[in-house]
Each structure stands twice: as structure tokens, then as C-alpha cells.
Amino acid sequence: MYSLSQYSYVASFVALALAALAYASYGVTRRRAILAGFDGDATADVGERAVPAMPASLGRWGTILTINAFVFLTGALGFRWIAAGHGPFSNMYEFSLSFVWGTLAAHLYFEFRYGLRSLAILVLPVCLAMLGYAATVSSKIDPLVPALQNSTLLTVHVAVAIAAYGAFALSFAAAVLYLVNRQDRFTWLPRRAMLDEVGYKAVMFAFPMMALVVILGAVWAKVAWGQYWSWDPKETASLVTWLIYGGYLHARVIRGWKGDRSAYLLIIGFGAVLFTYFGNYFFSGLHSYG
Amino acid sequence: MRSMPAVQQRGRVASTSPWLTNPTGQLWHTLTSVRLALILILLIAVATLAGTLLNQVPGSVAADPAAYSEWLHNARDRYGAFTPLMDRLQLFHVFSSIWFRALIALLVANIVVCTVNRWNSIRAAVFVPRVRMNPAYFERARIRSAFSVNVDAPAAAAAVRQGLRSAGYRSLADQGESVALYADRFRFSRLGTFLTHLSLVLLLIGAIMGRIWGWKDDQFIVAQGATQQLPLAKDISVKLEQFQEEWYVEGPPKDFESDLVIYDNGQEVERGTTRVNSPLSYHGITFNQAFYGQVAVIEARDASGNVVFNEGVPLAWTASQGNRPMGILDIPGTQVKGYVVGPEPGTYDTAVPLGTVRLELYDRSTGQLAAIESLSRNQDVQAEGLTFRFLRESQFTGLKVVKDPGVNVVWIASGLMVLGLVMVFWFPHRRLWALCTPRADGGTDVSLAAASQRDLGLERDFEQVSAKVRRALTRRQREEKGGVDHV
User: Fold this and answer.
1) What is the complex's ipTM, to 2 decimals?
2) What is the mean pLDDT of residues B337-348?
3) pTM metric for this prediction
4) Three-class secondary structure of residue B237 per DSSP
5) CB contact under 8 A, B417 and A215
6) Which residues make Cβ contacts (< 8 Å) with residue B274, sequence separation at least 6?
7) Is the pLDDT of residue B277 over 60?
8) Which string of b and e fits A35-73 if b means at least 16 CB within 10 Å?
9) How many Cβ atoms sit within 10 Å of the Cβ of residue A255?
10) B325 with B315: CB under 8 angstroms?
11) Distance, in angstroms, between A270 CA and closest chain B CA?
12) How far away is chain B from the Cα of A159, in angstroms, using its nearest Cα?
């Protein structure tokens, strides 16, 4: 099972790298096609204007490869789950795979629901970096230390975190493209209004999840450490993350904070997600396992 | 001309700060601002980040001025000349600093005022919505659709309502010359915002309850076989029957367990095993497995051979030199006070060989070092007029003992918060309006429109609703026609 998991991981990595290539060429050819005067159907209700055959088929390849990567990654996590006998959520290798899984799930959801392929240009590199990082840490299945021996909370706390982080990654990609695509000058990118909306949608999904992550963390802290809150760096960092997204949600209704500033908050928010995620490299605390 | 002074007067008033003319009104106005909320949230986020990145003084150290000044001295290695300034700004205990608490208090005031301020408009939107919109609204709304049907307005309205119902929308009608309709779903979602914001206040109340009526002891130590009184709840004492540690063959720890007996006023009231993920609790006091360590059981006899001391000394502290575990030896009624030092773990310790402990005795009155002796197992050593013997090694358990009467309030607040957030963000309130205007030819113009803010979900919903309404209207039209044909 362990080797099956490893093979699936490698397959997923390869598929994702190819998908990134396909999406990138999709972007480039789409841009050329639009520059060459192809006039898509601007009234289409999907996020992107219609495109001629060549880039469209590249985009489709990107999607197919991403689905493959997602399936392989599901396999990698599933086989590991069976091999370890607990959710694959107990060390940085497992977190990284799960993080990518959550991000791909969010991406595929938005691609199918809103027809947004171009987000992949940013989302996939983030995922590839994460999978690459996973290759640098030990993939050994270690037995659970006493603090982690709580299978319900281990599974729920981390699974919810992964769903939230995946959606936050997507809102990050939307925010960056939003800032890049000023005055909608890049016609091959989704329109700004759409990117703004997608960023918001992703946070709408993830914000209650993130609250639940912090709360489940507090419940677990009470059970395992005796106190629900002790300003441990990891819990504090997750609170900061939640506060930044809370700020973003309030910013969206204030004149002067709509648009660019909100987009910057999304980028800072994802910075906080990564800071929380890699927290153990910056500080020591009770959360020493990852 | 007579009005001139009045105009001047008004000019002067306008140039004065509203904080002077109407301070309470202005304070209220300021606290209703979402901008203030945003600024406070971001400031608290920055402060919290500072509390994560800067070294924070542990609570036990902060309580002891001498320990705190030593801690500050060590902090200089890292923060250099900024240390006194940072100390002045309370940056070493951000979360208990005055300014952090002020930010939280301000946010709470902001939340409460915003809640009160928004109550009426939200209550109206939920319970008494506006049913009739002007015809102009249906021409300008960003999301809209229109149909013409050959049935009269009431029949058309009935069909529209049927379509809305099948799309999960409830509708309200205002009959007139034209029939106006209002439809929505998840209207209670709007109340979620109150749940979420007030749950934050409740959370804080729970935390304060814990501060006022609760206590914690991070380092409650009981040696195996010994019974120890809780320093913060003297009625209660804890006996450690046995401590066990288990390790995986690969090396990492598997389990730490303490078999405990709890006594209240000498009566046994609770008995059980505390593990890392399953604490023992009694009367709202929880006992969590936190750490463990070695115990040296020491016996001391006086000149006439009477045993004056026979106890396990937990080596629960670490000597500043050599990283050796050490414990405090205090024999009441004698001059003897000092330390028992064990061998440094994981090394070949030549100064304190394995299987021995070192006794460091200090004179109780002068504080001078009086004797250093090495004790081997079961060998008598004379020092300070007593005969010491190292009987055996044993273990102690380190428990975290916490009493927190606010914890249930915190859980309730947490539940309300998640519920509120899910209501607001996963089931957003969706509203749309319809107008059925009779035409001169006996038919009806039906307009459908939705609130204008951008909302992809609403657009998607609107398309579905629109399709359902169209289908219901077509069916209605066919039925009417069929009716006519029969006649």
C-alpha cells in the first residue's frame, strides 16, 4: 500500500506538471488568437470568452490532466490512509499532499461551475511547489505520538483545514489575476468583475471552515493539553489568518476598500495561510508535529 | 438681512468638531462604522502576529519580578537595545497588555453598537420586506427578465408564484391594478450576522469567566506512590498509583499514562487513568498528562538513627549547568536544604555517573554551599549531621490541572459562531421581485428582477427561477386556452 501511494504521488506530480504546461500554452495561444482578431461571443455567461479550436483543445488537455493528477493524488492519500491506519494528516508530507488535494478540488469545482480555466496558470504552480516540497520531506509513515492519538479530531480538524486552505489558495489566484488584469486589458484573462466574484465566493466557502478549524483546534487543545487556548504559535497564526479574511469580508462593503485593497487583503491572507502552514519552521510550540 | 447672523452662526457650528457639540452622538456614529471594525480587525491581526513572532514571557515568569528581570536580561541577546522600550510597550506579553485589551474592548463596543444599529433594517428585510417595486426598477435592475402572456394579471401572478415555489422561493403578493410580488429564500440568513457577531462577545465573556473564577497549575508534580495536595484547591489531593510510558520500537513515544486517585477532603472521589488525549476530571477540574520524569527516593536519618526523611524527590527541573535533571530537597526541622541532581540524560556523564545522584546542600541560614556528595544506591553518606541514603529510582508524573468555569460558555459561543457563519455565507438571503401588469388586450406583462449587487449565485438562481416561472406561465396559458376551446 505504501509503495502504491508513492507511485500515485509521482504520477500525480507528472500529470500536474503536464497540466501546467497545457494550461500555460492554452493561455499563450488564446492570447494570440484574441490578438489575431478572433472575436469570441462576449455575451456568453461563462467566465471566459469563447475561443477557437486550438487553444480550446489545449485547455481541455489541461483539464483532463488536472483531473488525472487529482485522481492519482486521491489514490496517493487513500493508499496511505490504508497503510497508516489513520487519516493522512499527521506530518508535513501528508499535509502537503492533502493541501494540494484541497486546492485541486477547489480549482476543479470553479473550473466546471464557472468555466474559469485561466486560474490554473497560478493555482497549478502553487500546487506543483507544494508537491515538490513534499518530495523534500520524509514520506515515512511514522507511528502517531500521544498528542495525535485522537482519530476523530485528527481527521476532522485537518480535513476541514485542507478544504479551507484549498479555497483560500484559489482566492489568492483570483486576487493576483484581478490585480494583473487592470481595466480588463488582458482579454485572454477572465474579466475583473468575475475574478473579484470568484475570490469572494471562495472565501465565502472557506471562512466558516476556517472558523471551524480554529474551534476544533481549541476543542482538541482542551482535551489534550488542558486549555482551549494558550496562544500557541500555530493557533495564534490560524487566528491571524481568520482575522485577515474577516477583515477582507468587511472591506468588501466599504467604499474605498472594494477592488484593489480587497484583492491585496486576499494575497496577505494567503500569505498568512502559508505562514500558519509552515509555522513550525518559524517558531516552536506545542504543535511540534506540523 | 436679519437672517445673516443665523447663517454665520451655522457656519461656525459646522466648523466645530462634532466631538465637542455632540460627543455621545458622535461616539455612537463612530462606533457604527464598518470602517472602524475593519481597522480594529486588522490592528488585532497585526498585534496577534507580533505576539507570535516576538518571544513572549511565560506566565509563571511574569508573576515573579526576579525571574522576569532575568528573562528580560536574556531577551537582550535577541532584541538588544530595543529591549527596555519593548518591555515598556508590553510587547513581551502582548495578549495581556493594556493596549491589546483596549483594542478588544473597542471591537466589542463596535460590534454591539453595529448590531443595535442594524437591527431595524435587517428586521425589516427579514420580516416586513418591501413587496412592491416601481416599474422603473424592473427596467434598470442588472438581473432581469420579462415575458408576455395571454392571461390576466391575477392568473399570471398565480403562475409566477407557483414557479417561484417550485424553485424554493416563498413569495408575498400585493394585489392592485397590477400584481406586485416579492420572493426570497433563506431570509433567516440575515439573522446569522447577529449570531456571529454576538457570539464573539459571548466568547469573550466565557474567556473572562475563566480568568476570574478559574485557575491553572501547569506543573503539578506527583511522585509514584505519593499523595499531593493541589496548591490552588487545598481540599483536593491527588495520588499517583503508577506511571507508565510506552515507546514504539521505531523510537517515538507511544503513550504516557498516570493511574490517579483523587481525594476531596480525604475521601476518595475519583479514580482513573490520565492519558494525553483523555484527561481525568472531577468537579470541573481537569487533570491532563503534561510531562513526567525521574524521582530519586532519598532517606535521611539523624545521629540517633531516627528516619527524618523518606520521600521521592522529583527531579523535575533542569540544572543551569550540564542539563542535568534536579529536584529540591527540603527536610523540615533541620539545617538541610538543597538539591538532588541526576545524571545528564543521553550522555556518558562522568560527574554524576549513571545509577548515582549528587547531593548539593546549602546552609539554611547563610545560603552558603555546605556540602556536595555523590550518593550511590544503598550506600550511607554523612553530611551536615545526617546520614543520607539513595534508596531507589522511581518516576513522577507532571499534570496540568485546570479549572475553567467559562469553558462551556466558550463552546456555546463557538457553536453559535459556526452556525451564524454557515447561515450567512453558505445560505445567503436571495431576493427577487416581480410585477404583473395588465395589458389593454387582456394579457399581462410579467417582469422579474433581482437585487442589483453582484452575486454569481443569485444570477444562477435567477436563471433557474426565470425558467421555472416561464414554464409555469406557459402551462397556465395552455390551460386557459384549453378551457376556451372546450367552451
Assistant:
1) 0.88
2) 85
3) 0.86
4) strand
5) yes
6) B257, B258, B260, B280, B287, B288, B289, B397, B399
7) yes
8) eeeeeeeeeeeebbbebeeebbebbebbbebbbbbbebb
9) 7
10) yes
11) 14
12) 16
